[in-house]
Write a structure and sequence with these properties.
single chain; 0% strand; elongated; CopG
Length: 88
């Protein structure tokens, strides 16, 4: 079991806190465990999104070589590329 050794204070309004209590109760876990699970899911989804973007980048590069672009134009946000955007 993981040792929990960091504390974070998060403030919620009454309505959102009530929803948290209800969901945690329904799953029969503590509110803290519910929030940790939600954070894990969000981080995992973010990681999967980045991995998928990189996969699309490499697949596109393999299919159609792109002309070299000026480094100054792309260095600030290398993942904000047309080839990475979901065009569906």
């Amino acid at each position: 079991m993981t040792t929990l050794d960091r504390r974070v204070q998060v403030l919620f309004d009454e309505e959102l806190y009530g929803r948290l209590v209800a969901e945690a109760r329904e799953e029969r876990i503590s509110i803290g465990a519910f929030i940790r699970d939600a954070v894990d899911e969000r981080l995992d989804r973010r990681r999967a999104d980045v991995q998928a973007a990189l996969h699309r980048l490499w697949a596109s590069a393999d299919e159609v070589p792109q002309p070299a672009e000026d480094w100054e134009d792309i260095k600030d946000d290398p993942l904000d590329r047309p080839v990475l955007r979901d065009n569906s």
